[in-house]
Amino acid sequence: MSIAKFIQTQVLIPRLKKTGVLVVYDPNKVYREVCLEFKDDPLRKIIDTSKSSIISREKALDCFQELGKSNGNLEGMLVYVPAEPPMTDEEKQNDPFSIYTVCGSMFPDGDGDEYMNICIKAKPNHATEIRRIFNENANPSFEVIDAIGNGKGWPNLQAILGMKSANEILYALMAPSEEHKTKLNSQDSWVSEAKDLFSTCLGLKLITRGKTWNSIADELWRFILFSEFVFDLPVTLPDALENVPCSKKEARPIIDGLCDRLRNDSRIQALYLDRAEAIERDLYLPQHCKDIKDLGNRDTFPFEERCFLKLALLALKENNTDKVRTIIKGHMDSVWSGKGESQVQWGLVKAALSLGEVCEDLGRQLPEHTNSMEHLVKFYVAHLREADRLQREFEQSISNYIDAHGEMGEVIESTRDQYRRLASKAQDVFIRHFEKIGWPPIGMLSNNDVFDQKVASKLSESGKKVAFFLVDALRYELGVALEKELAEDWQVEIEPAFAQLPTVTNIGMASLLPKASKDLVISKKDNKPVPVLAEKTLTNVNQRMEVLRGIYGQRFQEMTLSNFKKTKKLDGTADLLVIRSVEIDSQLESSPESTLNMIHDSLKRIRFACHKLQKMKFQNIIIATDHGFFLNTHTEAGDVCSKPSGNWVNVHDRLLMGNGSENSSNFCISSEKLGVRGDYPQISGPRGLVPYRSGVSYFHGGVSLQECLVPVLTLRLGEEKSEYRQLSVNLSYRNGAKKITTYLPVFDVVWDQKSPTIFGSDSDFEIILEAHDKKGNVVGEAKAGGPVNPATGTISLRPNDPIKVTLKMQEGYEGSFVVKTMDPNTLKTYAKIDLKTDYNI
Questions:
Q1: Which of 146, 160, 560, 599 has the most CB atoms within 10 Å of its CB?
Q2: Domains: count for the chain
Q3: What does pTM read for this prediction?
Q4: How far apart are CA 739 and CA 733, in angstroms?
Q5: Largest CA distance in the chain
Q6: 711 vs 494: CA distance, rounded Å
Q7: CATH of the domain at 621
Q8: SS3 call for 655
Q9: Is the predicted pLDDT of residue 724 greater than 50, yes or no?
Q10: pLDDT tens sequence across 224-273
Q11: What is the mean pLDDT of residues 489-503?
Q12: Are residues 486 and 629 in the same domain?
C-alpha cells in the first residue's frame, strides 16, 4: 500500500466516518493531493481553501448545513487548510475554519499524526530507514517513502519463526524457542534475509561468516546491548571502545524496545543476565569505563549497577537521603535484582538508609521523654525499640554481604556510629534514673512475678491447659516481631517486664519460676553467684525444671522446642507444658556476626509450636524470656570499661557483685535497692554500653534498656480454624535450570490466584522458603530483607504479584537438594524444585 493510500484509508476516512467533519491543516502542502482525491467521492465533500478564503467559507457553511439535514446525501465534509493549525484562543478566533474542529475533528492532532510517525505506522519494518530519511529531509515526498523497502520482505524468516514484523523477528532471533532454534540450525536460507533485516533495521553489517544461529546470535546480542549502552551514555565513549560496532541513532527506539523486552520477559531474564555478563567481560567494559562517573539511566551491564551503588553510597555519606531513595527506587525492579549478590548489596543500602533516618528522628524526640524512668520506658516500648530492630536487620544485611570491592566500609561504620550515638544517649538517661530509683521500677511487671501472675493463675482454673515458653535472649524488639506474626491467628497481648539482675541465663530463668519474687536469692558458691529458690540451689536447667515438677507433679511436662516439633503426643495428665529454647542465646554467644540470620528460625519454630499446641487443645500460651541483649558492633579502641576498686565477682563481663566504690565509669549500688537478695551486698557495672573485656560484640548481664526490658506475650487460643482456602504457589528458578552456580540463587515465587477467595483479592498470606537435603536437613533459607521478614523469615505474598526471593545456601554444602515453599504454621509444602549445586568458584 502506498503512503498516500495509507493516509487516506487508515487516517482520514476513519475520522470522517466517526465525526462527519474533518479539518486538515497542512502548511507544507504534504497532504493536498491526498485530500483532493475526495472531490470525486459522492458521499464526501472536499472544501479546498487554498485559493479564496471568502468563497471557501461560503462553501463550507453550505456544505455543513447540508450535512446537518436529516435527509441529506452527504456523509462527511473535509476542509483542507494549507496553514498552521490555530493553537491559542486568539488564533482560533481569527481562523474561520476552527469552528468545524469543535463540531468534528482535526488533522494533525497530537504527536502520533506527525508525518514521520504516520510513515512508520505505514511501514513499521522500516522504522530506522524512515527516521534516517527524515533526519536528512524533514519533508520527504511520498515517492521517497514509497521507495523504502522496494516491497522486500523476509519470507524465510517469517515462515520459520511465525512472525511478520521486523521487531518480532529480531526478538525471536535473539531468544528463540527450542523449536525455532532447531529450525534455524537445520537450514541457512534465512541467513541472507537476516543480514538484510539487520542492515535495514539496525545498521548492523554482520562480521561473522558463520551461518549458524549461535554465531549470528552472539554478534547480534553484542551489537544490540552495546548500542543501548552507547545511546544511554551521557559522555563521550572511551577511545578503546570507539571501533566496537554500534547501531545508528535512528534505530534507538528499536534497540531500547528490544532491550526492555529482553529484561522484562521473566522467561528469558536468565539468558539476558548471562549474555550481558559475557559481553561485559569480552569488551572489558569496567576497565575501559572506570573513570566515568555517570553511565546514564539504564542497567544494561552489571558493572553499571555497581556505579549506581557507588552513587547511592556517596549520597548516604553526604546524608542526602532523598537522593538515596530515588536511586533505590530507580533500581528496585532492575533485571540485576535477579542476582542474589545484587539483592544483598541493595538490601544493605536500604537497611543503612532506614536505620540512619530512624536514629536521626528518634534522637530528636528523645529529649521529650527523659523526665522519669516511666516516660523513658514508655518511649522505648512505643518507638525507641524500633532502632534496635533496624540495627539488627542492618547487621543481618552486613553478615550476608561480601564487600569484594571495599565500597561499603565507610557507610557501615558511619551507620553503626549513628545507632551507637542514639543508644548511648538513651543509656545515659536510663542509668541516671536507674541509679536514682533502683530496680525494678515500682508499679510495672517484674519477671519475678510472671509465673505467679500469668501462668499459675490460669492453672488454677479447672481444665485449663497452659504452655509456658522460656525463650533465652528474646529481647523486646524480637518479642514485638513475634507478636505481629502470632496476632494474625490469635488474640495476643504483649507487655514489657523488668528482668532480674544480673541479666544472665541461670539467674534470669530462675526468676521465672513460682514464688521467685519472694523466695529467690543470689548465693555465693565457689566464688560464683548462684540462684537459690526456697533453699534449692539452681545451677542448671534440670534443677529448675524439678522445681516445677515438685509443685505440679504429673500435671507438668517439659521439653525443648526442637523436641516438641517431633513430639506427636503429650502425657494425658499434663496441664502445664514448659517449652524451652536456647538457640538465640547460644548462637549469638558463639558467633554473633554469622548467626544473626538464624534468629528467625527460633521465632518460626515458636509459631509452628503454637499451632501444634492449638491442635493439642491448649487454651493459653505464655512466652517469656530471661534477658535481652545488646549488639556491640561499633567497637573502637577504648570501648572497654575499667573495673572500680573493691572486691568483685565479674558476671558475664557486664556486671560486678561484691563490694567496693563507684567511679566516673561505674555505678555502685546496694543489692537491696536493685532487687537482689543474697550474699552480695553491692552491685556495680559500667554506666555506658561497654563491657569489661574487649572484643565482645554480643553482650548481656548488665544494665541497659536492651538487656533489662523484656517482653511477655500472652496468647488465648480458640478453636482451630479449618482449611479455608486452596492455595497454588508457583516456584521457579532461572527458567527451569536444574543447577545453581552461586550461594545466593534467586527464585521467582507467585501466588497463582485464579479464582477469588472468601477473603477477596486484596488478601495475602505468608510462606517460608527453604532448601532441604535428602535427609530433610535445612541447607538453605530465604535471605532476610526485601520480601523476607528479617525477624521471622516469612514471605508475604499477594495474589498474582510475583516476587523474587534470594535463597542463602549454607557455605560448604554441595550436592542435591530440594527447594520448598511451605506454610509456616503447618510446614505443609506448596511447591518444590529439585536442584543440584554447581558453584562457580
A1: 599
A2: 6
A3: 0.76
A4: 9
A5: 120
A6: 6
A7: 3.40.720.10
A8: strand
A9: no
A10: 999 999 999 999 999 999 999 999 888 899 999 999 999 988 788 889 99
A11: 95
A12: yes
Q: Nearest to residue 542, comparing CAs of 553, 554, 558?
A: 558
The answer to whether 679 touches 524, Cβ cutoff 8 Å, is yes
Grid coordinates of 824: 509456616
If pLDDT is split at 50, 70 and 90, which confidence band does 366 have?
A: very high
Closest-CA residue to 820 (of 763, 749, 735, 741): 749
pLDDT tens, position by position, 56-115: 898 999 888 888 775 667 788 899 999 999 988 889 888 899 989 888 999 999 888 999
- In the structure, how many helices (H) and strands (E) does the chain have? 34, 28
| Residue whose C-alpha cell is 536487620 | 393
> What are the residues whose beta carbons fall under 8 Å from the beta carbon of 568, sequence distance 6 or more?
none
| Beta strands across the sheet bearing 682-686 | 646-651, 655-660, 682-686, 666-670
Other C-beta atoms within 10 Å of 55: how many?
12
SS3 662: coil
57 and 145 within one domain: no
List Cα–Cα distances, 418 to 233, 387, 412, in angstroms.
36, 10, 10
Task: Give the full edge-to-edge strand order of the sheet including 520-525.
Answer: 520-525, 528-533, 536-537
Q: What is the mean pLDDT of residues 179-190?
A: 89
- The CATH number given to whatever domain includes residue 813 is 2.60.40.10
The pLDDT of residue 443: 86
Question: With left for phi above 0 and alpha for psi between -120 and 50, is residue 275 left, alpha or beta?
Answer: alpha
**Cα dihedral across residues 388, 389, 395, 399: positive or negative:** positive
In sequence order, what DSSP letters do the residues of 241-306 get, joined into one string? GTTS----GGGHHHHHHHHHHHHH-TTTHHHHHHHHHHHHHHHTHHHHTTT-S---S---SHHHHH
